[in-house]
Design goal:
Length: 133
């Protein structure tokens, strides 16, 4: 199992980086992203929070790309991403009965898949002295 997880690590890092980096759209185009991706009304007073969230998610996505070339980044990036993504999943699930959550389900599914891989990677590689190998 460990061999499979390590064999596909580069592909997972790329796909996770690509999917996660799409959050940068909220920084560059906050109104468009909120209205089109989440089907939520845009309020100019919320722009700073939307853009901040978008940049934070973009940075996690970029970290996945860096980890593709810097194996010493894999473990820290996976740990940070796991915390960030599990928190997002918990927010969506805890607000599941609210209508504003409708636009977040696809992102939650993507984050759940990424978290599953990360958890499996860290679990199955836990006996190795260097999880990034």
């Amino acid at each position: 199992m460990t061999t499979i997880l390590i064999k596909y690590r580069q592909i997972v890092l790329f796909l996770a980086g690509l999917g996660t980096s799409l959050g940068g759209l909220y920084t560059l185009f906050p109104q468009w992203a909120l209205e089109n991706l989440n089907q939520l009304p845009f309020f100019a007073s919320d722009t700073i929070f939307i853009q901040h969230w978008g940049l934070m998610v973009l940075m996690v996505g970029c970290s996945f790309f860096i980890a593709m070339f810097r194996s010493d980044w894999v473990k820290p990036v996976f740990c940070i991403a796991l915390i960030e993504k599990l928190f997002f999943i918990s927010l969506v699930l805890s607000n599941a009965n609210q209508p504003f959550v409708d636009g977040f389900w696809s992102s939650m599914v993507m984050d759940t898949i990424i978290c599953t891989y990360i958890a499996a990677y860290l679990w199955w590689c836990r006996t190795a002295s260097d999880l990034s190998s």
